[in-house]
Amino acid sequence: MNASRSPATRRDDAPGVTLLEIRGLRIEGQSEEAWHEIVKGIDLTLRRGEVLGLIGESGAGKSTIGLAAMGYARPGCRITAGTIRFDGTDLAQASEADRRQLWGSRIAYVAQSAAASFNRTVGSLLGAPDASSGYVFPVGGGPGVVSVAHTHHDYPAADIAAPLGEPAYALANSVVQRSWSTPDPRCGIGLTLQAYDGQVWTYCHLAVLDPAVTPGAVLSAGQQVGLVGATGDATGPHLHLQLQPATSYPQEEPWFQGFAGTAFSWQDDEPTPGAPQPMAQPIRGLAAVHQGPVFRVVPAAPTAVVLFSR
Known about the structure:
The protein has helices at 62-68, 96-102, 122-126, 254-258, and strands at residues 18-31, 34-47, 77-86, 89-90, 147-148, 158-161, 167-169, 174-184, 188-195, 200-209, 218-219, 224-228, 238-243, 265-266, 295-298, 305-308. By secondary structure, the chain is mainly β. The chain folds into three domains: 18-102, Rossmann fold (3-Layer(aba) Sandwich), CATH 3.40.50.300; 122-266, Distorted Sandwich (Glucose Permease (Domain IIA)); 277-310, no CATH class. The longest helix has 7 residues, at 62-68. The protein is globular.
């Protein structure tokens, strides 16, 4: 009996064996409705046990190449040529389903940021923030690059701004209720999970969903669930976080506020959403058409500002 595997499935874990081989990689980026080549014929080889560094100025394409090594092109980019062979599998030609089986289990992208590049411990660079009352902050990177406003433009939610590709984490010990890797027109790629305390949370606009995040999966607080992106109806990379139903702001949660200054910075100096806000009365005759307040007056500005919700 021959116990060796077939060449198609055999993996050689010996040091020095080629693990990643990229040949002729070309990537285009979209700008003003035109495509421009931003990575022009990259060749590299990474053997098992080796560490390979890419050196270049900001915008040179280092992160783009790193994501492409997973067979992934960030929004606004596309791989136009080349082979990306990881442990015998050409990720450039593999189906999305096959790639997702590898993402998170065999190959992963650990994002870095300018604020977290120097003088940081490995734990703070690679891991989620420390837990607070059973919760962790759902986006990595730190307050230098991660920020959030006290309010949301439309309804109670938090748009957590972060660089594309920053890790997104399960915010508590939880169970996945729903997940979708095909972008929804509004929410993009995302998931809904129920935390240990019964609260239900939805994540939107991820760039990549970890293949382990499937309905019924049990997640630990701080477990990576994907990468920050801009899929769906998003104006830029961020994690949209909301409770289900969206009856209160995540920013009102004590655990959320406890991470201010350590995991994120506030984008504004406004009071928290729970603070009393003077509300103008709706114009007579419109109440039957528009239920609830139509506008509110913000007293903090030197001149009164009226914000319309419709």
